[in-house]
């Protein structure tokens, strides 16, 4: 499903796609972003502290 991510902290995450490609993203508390369904990836915390976000999926 399509979804929105709302970061609950400010920090950096590493995304790794199915092919092993890596990218890092800077996220800011409360600044949300939208993603379409079908994008498989792993999310890795790059910070030296816990990082939290809220994910809302659209049906």
Brief summary:
The protein has 59 residues and is mostly beta strands.
Record keyword descriptors for this entry.
three-stranded antiparallel β-sheet, mainly beta, flat, 53% strand, single chain, 59 residues
Task: Tally the structural domains.
Answer: 1
What class, by secondary structure content? mainly beta
- Adjacency order of strands in the biggest sheet: 4-1-6
Extract low-pLDDT stretches.
none
pLDDT averaged residue by residue: 95
Number of strands: 6
Shape label: flat
User: Mind summarizing the main beta sheet?
Assistant: 3 strands, antiparallel
What is the H/E order?
A: EEEEEE
Number of separate helices: 0
- Please report which band the strand proportion falls in: under 5%, 5-15%, 15-25%, 25-35%, 35-45% or over 45%: over 45%
What's the helical proportion of residues? under 10%
Distance N terminus to C terminus?
A: 6 Å
**Rg computed from alpha carbons, rounded to a whole number of angstroms:** 12 Å
Write up what this structure looks like.
With 59 residues, the protein is mainly beta. The protein has strands at 3-7, 11-17, 22-27, 33-35, 41-45, 53-57. It has one domain (3-57). It contains no helices and 6 strands. The strands form 2 sheets. The chain has a 3-stranded antiparallel sheet with strand order 4-1-6, with no helix packed on it. It has a 3-stranded antiparallel sheet with strand order 3-2-5, with no helix packed on it. The protein starts with a strand and ends with a strand.
Q: What's the structural blueprint in terms of helices and strands?
A:
Elements: E1 3-7, E2 11-17, E3 22-27, E4 33-35, E5 41-45, E6 53-57
Antiparallel strand pairs: 1-4, 1-6, 2-3, 2-5
């Amino acid at each position: 499903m399509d979804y929105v991510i709302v970061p609950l902290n400010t920090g950096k995450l590493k995304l790794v796609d199915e092919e092993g490609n890596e990218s890092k993203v800077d996220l800011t508390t409360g600044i949300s972003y939208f993603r379409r369904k079908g994008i498989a990836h792993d999310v890795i915390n790059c910070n030296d502290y816990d990082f939290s976000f809220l994910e809302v999926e659209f049906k």
